[in-house]
């Protein structure tokens, strides 16, 4: 009996030892099964960001090109308008004649038209400097000095706008009114101490303009100088006009 019990115990110990041996041998080599899902890799995120950056740059370049084309188109249209205005004045200057077709035009009628325009506008405040200057120039001038001041105002505006008609309109002055007295102002501008231009000795400005014309006709070199200054826009490119001599 004792041998039997001892044999059973040995058998049990052997089975337990074999089981433990199996556990020791199997555990180190068994594969580890992951329990968590794998997140997107950093490389994939970088590639995605690069692609988005590339698309944004392409859109930016496209918008820049559109803006550049738009600005270029506006500059072209603006330049064409300025050239058209200058060409129109040159055509008016070359087509004007020195006939007396405007003989019935007088300073008083031009002044009356100017007053009508002024009444239609009726500025709210008479203190405004711009309106005051227009009213001053719309009044009938009475001396060669006033003629010169009015002429220079139109000339400065013309050198900016390149249009005589537009410059006259801005100062509320009729273009024909300037043409009737332009010769008086231009002789004063080109006058030098050596030139004895006619003196104003009373009478009407139209009578004085006729005397200035006779003086200019007798000085072709001076007339040529005035024409050259008109071409360079140093003077208004406008033809002189004269009324019939007063009876």
TrEMBL record:
GO cellular component: nucleoplasm
Residue ranges, compositional bias (Low complexity): 102-112
Coiled coil region boundaries: none
Ranges that cross the membrane: none
Chain spans, region Disordered: 1-38, 67-135
Biased composition (Polar residues): 69-78
Biased composition (Basic residues): 113-131
Acidic residues composition-biased segments: 91-101
Name of the protein in its database record: Coiled-coil domain containing 106b
Species for this entry: Astyanax mexicanus (Blind cave fish)
